Amino acid sequence: MAANKKLGMGSVVATGVGLIVATSCLLSLGQGASAIGTTFIISMVIACVINILFALSVSELNSLMPNITGGLPQYTLASMGPFVTIVIMVGGYLACNTMVSSAECAMFGNTIQSVFPQAGIPASVYCVILVAILIAINLNGVDIFAKVQDFVAYALIISLLILGVLGTIKVGTGTPISQPAVLSSKFSDITGLCGLAFFLFIGCEYVIPIGDKIDNPRRKIPVGMIISLLLVLTFQIFMCIGFSHYTPWAALGKSTTPHVLYGTLLLGPVGTYWMAVVSILAVVSSVNTVISSLAYIAAGMAKIGLLPEIFNKTNKKGAPVAGILLFGGIILVINAVGLSTSSSLSFLILCGCAFWMLSYIVTHINVLIFRKRLPNAPRKFKVPGGPIIPVLGAIGMAWMFWNISSDPAERALIYIVCLIMVAVLSVYAVLWIKKVMHRPLFKAFPVEEVMAMDNDLYAVYHDPKTGRLRANISRGGVTPVAERDA
Fold it and tell me: Do residues 228 and 13 lie in contact, with contact meaning Cβ atoms separated by under 8 Å?
């Protein structure tokens, strides 16, 4: 009986908050707050509302295609076909996660260096050593952080909430400073930072894979994701106000570890080591999870024919070798180059956010397509208001994409990076779909086929690339090769 016990709302919210929050979010929070002061809270509220609209759309997709493990790529495969899926959802989504994880890893090196500056070791060295160890651990099929993953994430969240409240009510052991809380109230400055604020709320869709373990998912998935986003917004507002009371804006903007800086100025050495220990554990745990999860996502996409079969190959320990080496290797190389400044880290995060926004826009469009194509299909949850919320959500995401950076030069460079990635992925997608999959570029897969692909038996009875029955399979079962040839 206990084995079948379903998760309640508390577990859903805890999971959602734990998956949204990362130490790299604190860099974006510090960058935004130092740019315009506490009016960055308005940017955060706008970004949070737009992400809530996304949470509603992805909840409807989950109710239409429940219990699938691939999430956003599978919805798109059944909606727009393999080309958009590969370019935006597979290639782009994997790429943006890799970028963001590289920034997260850099936070590890920067945090250690800020706590032990006397060692004289470059932050990139710590990062490279960490990634190399995590690659080796994952290749051995061992996830030593799985049992402490939730504890570490929640410790970070509770720590930030406590520090935020202490700073807001000015009861820290440090000395409050006198500085203007608002640096700019211009609408253009506030909206120009919405792209940066978006990063503070990404990841609520990671709740979807546990949908089959939730009691009354029709209600608890959308409501749980919304509560998670609002809780994250709440403690970030406290942190932003706390920054204004204890951290000089200029120092906050230059810091690559704003949470450690704030903890130090708020509580002295206790705050330094408190935030350092919690954030280091959180980074190690999250980067380890990303290397592993991206490798398994790539394996899943290879299983349904969207990526080369090599990504589905495992070693004797059951680890997907190609994915672990590829994603871990990219993170290692990016950090070996050296992400030593807050501006370089912020740029990497914004590049990842840009592709994340594109995948969210496609998700809203998926809802509209399925509403048109499958109007009578059963949905345990349907976004109220007809097409209004998906349309507003897509427009909001597109607007944030346009305002990805308040610096025109940086914004143009981010667009160039995105165009290059789209061009490379488009070439791969066309060649792969035409030469290997032999499928139309934009013809959607049937929903039932996409859902069937999640079952291991699909690969036994079908060619995962073409979707056709294998040559030695008949409708009645397996046909012996000799009999078939006769």
Answer: yes
The C-alpha atoms of residue 140 and residue 154 are separated, in whole angstroms, by 27
Q: How far apart are CA 407 and CA 267, in angstroms?
A: 34
Return the H-helix or E-strand segment holding 51.
helix 40-64
Residue-range domain boundaries for the chain: 2-443, 455-486
- Cβ distance 223 to 77 under 8 Å? no
d(CA 190, CA 405): 11
**Residue (of 198, 206, 233, 194) closest to 58 by Cα position:** 206
Query: Would you state the structure tokens that stand for residue 440, as one six-digit string?
Result: 């139309």
CA distance 296 to 427: 24
Question: Tens digits of per-residue pLDDT, 223-255?
Answer: 888 998 999 999 999 999 999 999 999 999 988
Alpha-carbon distance of 52 to 58, in angstroms, equals 10
Q: Which helix (H) or strand (E) holds 83?
A: helix 82-84
| Nearest of 75, 110, 105, 108 to residue 89 by alpha carbon | 75
DSSP 415-477: HHHHHHHHHHHHHHHHHHIIIII---SSPPPPHHHHHHTTSHHHHHHB-TTT-PBPTTEETTE
Encoded tokens for 266: 């708020």
Residue 158 amino acid letter? I
Range with the poorest average pLDDT among 162-171, 177-186, 294-303, 448-457: 448-457
How far does CA 299 lie from the centroid of its chain? Answer: 18
Q: How far apart are CA 373 and CA 447, in angstroms?
A: 11
Average pLDDT value for residue range 460-467: 57
Check if the beta carbon of residue 161 is closer than 8 Å to that of residue 370.
no
**Cross-strand pairs, 462:** 469
Instruction: Decide if 90 contacts 362 (C-beta within 8 A).
Output: no
Lookup result for tokens 């994430």: 153
**Tens digit of each residue's pLDDT (9 = 90 or more) over 133-142:** 989 988 987 6
Contact 280, 296 (CB under 8 A): no
Using the predicted structure, report yes or no on whether residue 217 has a pLDDT greater than 50. yes
pTM metric for this prediction: 0.85
The CATH classification number of 2-443 equals 1.20.1740.10
Q: Which pLDDT score, from 0 to 100, does residue 202 have?
A: 87
Query: Residue 70 has which token pair?
Result: 């691939």
User: Would you say 279 and 258 are in contact if contact means Cβ atoms under 8 Å apart?
Assistant: no
pLDDT at 92: 72
